Amino acid sequence: MSSNTAQRRVLLAAPRGYCAGVDRAVIAVEKALEQYGAPIYVRKQIVHNKYVVQTLEKKGAIFVDETEEVPEGSIVVFSAHGVAPSVHDEARAGRLATVDATCPLVTKVHKEAVRFADEGFDILLVGHEGHEEVIGTMGEAPDRIHLVDGAEDVANVQVRDESKVVWLSQTTLSVDETMATVGELKKRFPLLVSPPSDDICYATQNRQVAVKQMAPETDLLIVVGSKNSSNSVRLVEVGLEYGAKAAHLVDFAEEVREEWLEGVTTVGLTSGASVPEVLVEGVLEWLAARGYEDVSTVKTAEEHLVFSLPKELRRDLRAEAAGKL
Predict the structure, then answer these.
(1) Cα torsion through 83, 85, 91, 93, rounded to 10
(2) Where are the catalytic residues (predicted)?
(3) Numbered residues of the known binding site for [4Fe-4S] cluster
(4) What phi, psi does 87 have (nearest 5°)?
């Protein structure tokens, strides 16, 4: 390698990794397993991270794609990405006990969609087709919500009344990309209403800001995260857009390739909002073994938000606690 060992360094983004919604969802599955024992069924991946899913499977969680796969009378946890009302109906029909681990910030978008639909608006949902969060949000008002998958999709949008149009967004998008799409929507629909508060979640924004700050100094950006994690994929894109010479997404340290380090002095390291810190530590150890022992933190925000557990668990947890007094 052509870089001088003494110069090699790692810029470690902060904040990175778990957000409040992911932490809440993972704990919800763990608490359900503790309280009720295995198996606990989980509809879809609780969060989009391979390691988290594998860890919970070892503890007794069973992940299914559809509610109908869950045996009657069982307990099912809904993932952090949220579900359409029809999924709740399916669970009732299957006599399932449900724990709704939908991130409260996703729930906020669902409630906005319902309110604007009730007020007669057409809703332009900026998001990626097929993403679980988008499917869940669109299910709240399928006749009123139109998916806009990027600026190039704007020309295809048809609405009932151009004076009653609002935009909402998936919570895990690139801020820059979303605003570019909204800019095109405003050109087409000058009376377009914005959501009462930003739909892109604080954690997604904070992780992107940290990457933007360190990208210009970065020869190689490593993002720890799974390929189906929207916010992790966006971090790779943002890094390249803001000056990182190369950027790669990995689930585990062993996926980092030696040839990526050729000629590299500065490595940037961050992780998506569904990634436990142990995976970042693994990459740091891998890099240190190859001469990248100098680690500097690039901190752009402090995060202190914590969400309470899903109400179903809180109610049962209190009853359990009371029984032990």
Answers:
(1) -160
(2) 133 (proton donor)
(3) 19, 103, 201
(4) -70, -40
C-alpha 62/C-alpha 307 separation (Å) is 24
End-to-end CA distance of the chain: 64
Rg (CA), the chain: 21
Residues 49 and 23 sit within 8 Å (Cβ to Cβ): no
Which residue numbers are catalytic?
Answer: 133
| Residues that constitute the known binding site | 19, 48, 81, 103, 131, 171, 201, 229-231, 274
3 in Cβ contact with 263 (< 8 Å): yes
d(CA 92, CA 135): 20
Q: Name the pairing type of β-strands 247-250 and 165-169.
A: unpaired
Instruction: Determine the distance from the C-alpha atom of residue 220 to the mean position of all C-alpha atoms in its chain, rounded to a whole number.
Output: 23
Which pLDDT tens digit goes with each residue over 245-262?
999 999 999 999 999 999
Q: Who's near 125: CB < 8 A, 6+ residues apart?
A: 113, 134, 137, 138, 145, 146, 147, 148, 167, 168, 169, 170
Q: What angle do CA 42, 43, 49 make, to 5 degrees?
A: 75
Q: How far, in Å, CA of 55 to CA of 30, rounded?
A: 10
Burial status of residue 238 (CB atoms within 10 A of its CB: 0-12, 13-18, 19 or more): buried
pLDDT in tens, 12-35: 999 999 999 999 999 999 999 999
What's 193's DSSP letter? B
Q: What is the DSSP string of 77-113?
A: EE-TT---HHHHHHHHHTT-EEEE---HHHHHHHHHH
- Of 74, 70, 25, nearest to 276 by C-alpha is 25
pTM > 0.70: yes
